Amino acid sequence: MTPLLVWIVTLGVFSTALLRSAIPIYLNVADxxxxxxxxxxxxxxxxxxxxxxxxxxxxxxxxxxxAAQLLNTKNVYFATFKDKHVVMKKLGHDPQLEQLDHHILxxxxxxxxxxxxxxxxxxAVRPYTQQNVWLDCVKDLEGxxxxxxxxxxxxxxxxxxxxxxxxQRSVGSFRGSDMLMCPSQRKLNYIENEFVKxxxxxxxxxxxxxxxxxxxxxxxxxxxxxxxxxxxWPFPIxxxxxxxxxxxxxxxxxxxxxLPQASWKERIxxxxxxxxxxxxxxxxxxxxxxxxxxxxxxxxxxxxxxxxKIVDGENIVMVDLEKIRKDRPENFDVPYASDxxxxxxxxxxxxxxxxxxxxxxxxxxxDHNFFAVCRELFxxxxxxxxxxxxxxxxxxxxxxxPVYQTDCYSxxxxxxxxxxxxxxxxxxxxxLADV
Length: 435
What we know:
single chain, FAM69 protein-kinase domain-containing protein, signal, globular, five-stranded antiparallel beta sheet, 13% strand, alpha+beta
């Protein structure tokens, strides 16, 4: 029995070693197939590639294992980078990435005069981008126009279908990212300048290829770079990209994970922060406004110090208020109150939240951000415990809290929701100052 046992053990060790060599157990984040570097410049950037290739980014928890790729439909991974916890994102499900590649190939094959089978997406993104590029004369510090730079002009990806020798016309269903909503050349120039600045050293046209890719797929990195955390915006720190992987700060658990253990004081603090975020996004910067179109407990995270950040920037709409004033569309200066129209067919879904793209793009006064936050804070499910869960002593001291919360949640009268939100901000600050 002893020789047989030795033989079985030896065979087991040999088989395990063979399997490990044939089927990697651990995820190699420096692997070209993971990073998809061959698709560059139809990618998100390369500034963080040295960190990946030098082993500075190390997967952690379940993300360490190769099997994570098979089970991870969202393509989100956790890692450490310079002793900080980070999140790696591919910015889309595999089918979405395949759809992106197909769209770029589809739009470029007619320009290249080649069958789609003979064109790589890395080559196709160039003519597709360059047909939307123009030369702009940029003034120097003295105000003289002295430098010509390539810029990306406003475009509509759903209107550029090209018929080629072996390709069918698409049905025009490809809309691109939410950054393409409310088109404005000034807006595009603004995010382009920030993107180029954050990718210093790269040829400007290469940056435009990367920018085009993100505009078509997912504008989260553009939002996080244009409105950076270092300037006080409630977003994660954006560290950079390599190929089709971006690296962002890991903030902490999302609100859905955090709320069950939170005290009523912590919940008030979180509610206060969300209302302040709504106000900050509405005020915007440089005459641009941000709108939250997919706020939820799952895409807002809580840091170790209790600070809230919006960790999913894919569904944020950026609006150029200067363009609205210039174009003066109908009712542009008439205040608009969100009414949740479109959710009537889902009366039993308290999380249903609709918005009007037209009124976002064409109105100077829109209460959508307060609407989005208050729908989450004061829903019938009462996840925050603020509609019915506050201590009696607080309600006695501030008897108008339920009135303001109801107005913020359901009012359809212009100005009432914003006023209620402002009153709640003052009350919540006063409550927290006394505890």
